[in-house]
Design a protein that fits this description.
Elements (H helix, E strand, L loop, with lengths): L2 E4 L2 E5 L14 E11 L7 E9 L8 E7 L10 E5 L4 E9 L4 E9 L12 E4 L10 E6 L2 E5 L22
Antiparallel strand pairs: 1-2, 3-4, 4-7, 5-6, 5-8, 8-9, 10-11
């Protein structure tokens, strides 16, 4: 509890808050994108899944709470998921975010009384779509083979190649 004083006069007093004192803060190892889908065919948002990894405390924790937010300073208790005691990562799906938006994550251990320890430091991850490859070039190698090449895209970890005999249908 906290009580305010002015001179020797007692002022208002806050309600008490319980904090687990035996669990240290969790260390987040990393946040990585784990997939995204367009929220709907007509929207410009995406539902993005992030993988959050942390170091297990190995103490008397009952589990972990993973918080996520579009604000570095405000984390709602509604925007968290729970992970069990022996878990060291969780997938968090954030609904309807725009390309180039940053999301923030933090993790706290909690004890058997659901008291949370201090939160980890905040980690951020910017959701950024890969751009289209440039300098696409194709040449016939044989009657049944085409060789394609293009400039690598830094944010891409794989490529899908589409083909059709009709150039309007190769989507």
């Amino acid at each position: 509890k906290v009580c305010a004083y002015k001179g020797n006069k007692v002022g208002a007093q806050t309600d008490g808050v319980e904090v687990s004192t035996f669990l240290p803060a969790v260390t987040i190892k990393g946040v990585t994108p784990a997939g995204c889908v367009k929220s709907s065919a007509y929207s410009s948002y995406y539902d993005v899944t992030f993988e959050v990894e942390w170091e297990k405390l190995g103490m008397d924790e009952a589990g972990y709470a993973v918080y996520y937010s579009s604000s570095e300073t405000y984390f709602s208790s509604a925007d968290k998921i729970y992970a069990g005691k022996d878990v060291t990562s969780a997938r968090v799906t954030v609904k309807e975010i725009y390309n180039n938006n940053t999301y923030y994550f933090k993790v706290a251990a909690y004890d058997s009384n659901n008291k949370e320890a201090a939160c980890s430091e905040i980690k951020s991850m910017k959701f950024q779509l890969a751009t289209a490859p440039k300098n696409l070039f194709g040449e016939m190698e044989s009657d049944t083979s085409i060789k394609l090449s293009w400039d690598a895209v830094e944010a891409a970890d794989c490529y899908n190649v589409y083909y059709s005999e009709n150039k309007l249908l190769a989507t």
